[in-house]
Amino acid sequence: MKTPSLLLAAPLAAILVLGLAPLILVVVWSFCAWDSATYWIKPEFSVAAYGSILEAGRWSVFLSTLGKAFLTASICLVIAYPTAYAMYFLAGPRLSIALAALLTIPFFTSYLIRSFSWRLLLGRTGVINTLLQQVGVTDAPLDWLLFSDFAVIVGLIASYLPFAAFPILLSMRRVDPVAMAAARDLGAGFWTMARTVLLPLTYSGVFAGFLFVFVMVAGSSTEVQMLGGAGASIVSVMINDVMRVANFPLAFAISTLMLVVVFGLVLIGDAIFGLASLFEDRGQ
Amino acid sequence: MIVREGTTPRIVIWALTVVGLAVIYAPPLYLLGVSFNPSLQPGLPRLSDVTLKWYEALGSEHALIAALGQSLIIALATAVIATALSLAAALAYRQLHRGRTAWFLTVLLPMFVPGVIQGLALSTVLSRAGVKASALTVIAGHLLWAMPFAFIVILTSFAAVKRTYLMAADDLGASRFRQFYDITLPLVRPGLISAFIFSFLLSLNEFTRAFYLAGRQNTLPVVLFGKMNAGASPTIYAMSGAIFLVSSACVVVVALRSLFMQRRTG
């Protein structure tokens, strides 16, 4: 067979020109000084931008972003693992396909609209507050339901849950049910079997799912913009804020740190668990 | 081989599944319900009160309609180009021996670049190069967002293309182009159509990149974002509800179609 150089050329060019090159320039420009006269950069080496990340609580936004990503990814696993199990082992063929479609739709509908719609449920006069008062759980509407970290985490789970479910589903497809049935025949209860047989066999899916959600949350902005409180921030929103005063080097320095974290995690995850191998049986 | 779960585990597993689906679907479906309520106060309408008046009112929302038009043009162009590029990428993947995994990751990695960073980087580079922000710059930003999804969908559809088919055609003297045109293309056509629809929806609903890359005419999500924060109105619910419904319906059509194809081919 001939080398596929011609076929590679067009998509590779798009990825390099539109994706990689701008990101490399961002990294390079993050080490330049800011020119407040032109609102652009001066061609001289400087790490001042990285210094100012340490100021004004910017560092804490990084930490809270990673915290949100960790918490969201963990909760998503708790929900997505049983969901994948139900799809693959419990549901009949029709229900299984219906569940797969229901988990596919979120990828292709608006994150903006879905985040926004939580306002109707969580607001002071929203469904949940009305319900809680009718049942008599509280006398006054709960204020922390909306424009709070609680609302942000709920919105993030709703946005990125499918990113956890599909890798787990793919890994479950490779588990031999004989091993699970054998464990049950030998007297293991369901939970024991799940913990000692199924879970270890699906580690790659679990870690991939965790990683996907973590990375998506780390780069998210819409959920915080729609549902966060007054001072709420996340790295992507902080970049928007910095760009309001056109401080390019600072915005680029924050971006560079974030890219290092995101690509570091994805590449480490790939090296350990072989992310690409999850899709291996496809297109062969 | 049957794994006996027992009643309690089944209940726990289904309960968590339902919780997950409720978290995903309850809010947008509620919003959809609210959009049929004649009252200005958000709430579900009584069945006798259901109205389309906010959808009719959309006709006079010129800013939303102009933005929708712009978004549709951008989504169409993005879908055409992303599908073509992803087909090339998938063909290259099939022909590669070494470097397959590297190529797979190369196409997939743009998915993980945060939208704000990608949008900021591209818009800065383009404006430095003297390119004015327009529909074209948004398309440039949306291509890499849509390609990973389109690539995976097309790659999956390549499972139908058995190597033996191509070898047989080769033995019978078909040129490489004839092999592609007469064998590969018809077999992967369902994948191409799915990839096209998915790319279209991804572009139509994309917000963070368009926020940086849109020119004078904003895309629909950018305009919606502004209006959502300026105080919600029933027409916003109607526009959001309609876009959510149409997007979901497209995915369902793709799912049903692939199910039907599976049935037919066995």
UniProtKB/TrEMBL annotation, chain B:
<feature type="domain" description="ABC transmembrane type-1">
    <location>
        <begin position="68"/>
        <end position="258"/>
    </location>
</feature>
<dbReference type="InterPro" id="IPR051789">
    <property type="entry name" value="Bact_Polyamine_Transport"/>
</dbReference>
<dbReference type="GO" id="GO:0055085">
    <property type="term" value="P:transmembrane transport"/>
</dbReference>
<dbReference type="GO" id="GO:0005886">
    <property type="term" value="C:plasma membrane"/>
</dbReference>
<feature type="transmembrane region" description="Helical">
    <location>
        <begin position="236"/>
        <end position="260"/>
    </location>
</feature>
<feature type="transmembrane region" description="Helical">
    <location>
        <begin position="133"/>
        <end position="159"/>
    </location>
</feature>
<keyword id="KW-0812">Transmembrane</keyword>
<keyword id="KW-1003">Cell membrane</keyword>
<dbReference type="Pfam" id="PF00528">
    <property type="entry name" value="BPD_transp_1"/>
</dbReference>
<dbReference type="InterPro" id="IPR000515">
    <property type="entry name" value="MetI-like"/>
</dbReference>
<protein>
    <submittedName>
        <fullName>Spermidine/putrescine transport system permease protein</fullName>
    </submittedName>
</protein>
<keyword id="KW-1133">Transmembrane helix</keyword>
<dbReference type="InterPro" id="IPR035906">
    <property type="entry name" value="MetI-like_sf"/>
</dbReference>
<feature type="transmembrane region" description="Helical">
    <location>
        <begin position="102"/>
        <end position="121"/>
    </location>
</feature>
<comment type="similarity">
    <text>Belongs to the binding-protein-dependent transport system permease family. CysTW subfamily.</text>
</comment>
<feature type="transmembrane region" description="Helical">
    <location>
        <begin position="63"/>
        <end position="90"/>
    </location>
</feature>
<keyword id="KW-0813">Transport</keyword>
<feature type="transmembrane region" description="Helical">
    <location>
        <begin position="180"/>
        <end position="202"/>
    </location>
</feature>
<keyword id="KW-0472">Membrane</keyword>
<feature type="transmembrane region" description="Helical">
    <location>
        <begin position="12"/>
        <end position="32"/>
    </location>
</feature>
